[in-house]
Amino acid sequence: MAIITEEPQSPPQLRHRKANPKPTPNPASPPSEPPSTPAPPKSAETTVNPFHFWFYFTLLVSLITLSSVLISSSLSQQDPKTWFLSLPPLLRRHYSNGRTLKVQTALDHPQVEVFSIQHGPVDADSRVLIVHGAGCSSFSFQDVVRELGSRNSVRAVAIDLPGSGFSDKSVVVMEESVGGSDPFSKMWDVYQEIREKGIFWGFDQLVEQGYVDFDENAVKVLKRERVKPIELGSEEMGRVLGQVVDSMGLAPVDLVLHDSALGLSANWISENRGLIRSVVVLDGAPSGMALPLWAVGVPVVREIVLGFRFVFEMVLGKCCVKSVVAAEAEAHRILLKGRDGASAVVGMGKKLNCSFDLSEWSNRDSVKGLPFQVIWSGGWSDEWTSVGRQMADALLQSEFVSHSGGRWMQEQNSEEVAERIYEFVSSLPKPYREVVEETIPNHSQGKYTAKSDHQHGQGHGHDGHSHHGHGHGLGHHEHAGYMDSYGVGHGYGM
What we know:
Elements lengths: L11 H8 L31 H25 L4 H6 L3 H8 L1 E6 L8 E8 L6 E6 L10 H8 L4 E6 L10 E9 L4 H15 L3 H9 L11 E9 L4 H15 L4 E6 L2 H11 L4 E7 L11 H4 L1 H9 L1 H11 L6 H12 L3 H10 L7 H5 L9 E6 L4 H13 L3 E6 L7 H16 L15 H17 L3 H6 L27
Parallel strand pairs: 3-4, 3-7, 7-8, 8-9, 9-10
Antiparallel strand pairs: 1-2, 2-4, 5-6
Helix pairs in contact: 2-11, 5-17, 8-9, 11-12, 12-13
Keywords: Membrane, Transmembrane, Transmembrane helix
GO molecular function: hydrolase activity
Protein name: Protein AUXIN RESPONSE 4
């Protein structure tokens, strides 16, 4: 028997509706627009957040600032004794060959110590004083001094100007300021009163007399000590030269002015013609200096130039010397960065007289007739040689000679420069020096003779004590050695 089963079938109409839906016409609706294609996704470059740039920029500036602070801390002033003991042998040997004397750069400033080296007999006919330019020091001229001093008729002296080399580079000054009338200044005055008289001073006065004795309208002058770098201008240079020439007995002196020293010394030369026998200009432009001021004046640049040896050698080779010797460059770098020497160099550079007229100065009555010699670097550049010849033409009674070195002296050309200077000063007439003899009264003659015999018998007569057997002609007041301030003693090694 056959069984027939029927399977349920879905309604065909529903399938048909699903498969072929018919849109219902709507006459009121607007005509349909074609569907817009989706916008492509933006690339990574177009979706960069603008704050990313400022983040990285701030990070870079912070790193540069942090590096500058770290380098500045390494260049900060050390303890004088520690700084001296850390010097390389080249500088320590140079220092052991010198001594110091005290000068005053301004009337209201304390005395400062000036380092000097010298060689040659005290009673020489020619007394040469070498004055370096800004950024340089007597270290560059130690071989020139030795070569000149080896001649029997020349006494050669080179100094470190205040703010340079081993001389003092800063001075403590007392500054006065008038207290302000703003609320913060008054609060500060009250605080100072409490510090000076005690915290219960006002309360005691209030109990005793019913009020506090405090004058609000009083004009108070505040005094404070401040350490300032020595900024050497024309006036300060004149004071230094006058005191050095007088204390070392160099008059009439043969001046050798290097680099910027010419412009700084011009006024003193014209005002003290009787103390000067001749002037030698050694690669000295009327205004300007070989070492660029931006290298030691711009804060971040200064830390980089003085903080890294290779950077300083690049600057030195580009602007000052023809061939860089690593040991000499390192010595210059240490002297510049030690004890804030860069600030003193910047102060000297800012005080240069950029409007100095060499022709007008040389035509002054006080300068006419003064023998001049211009020693110039012949291989530095054609432009620099042209500047030297223009200077020789502007200076009356001058001769022009060249040397093979750069704008700063080096050991390799020191003998050549010393020979040029010696030929010039030895060709001049011998200077006349007036000898003043003091008349001793008859009633004191016997006492003086007995005292002199007693002193010479002990080997400590006036000359023996004053010169310490070295024959350097420096008085007893100059025996305060610069190294004594470091606490390690000092001996004159010439």
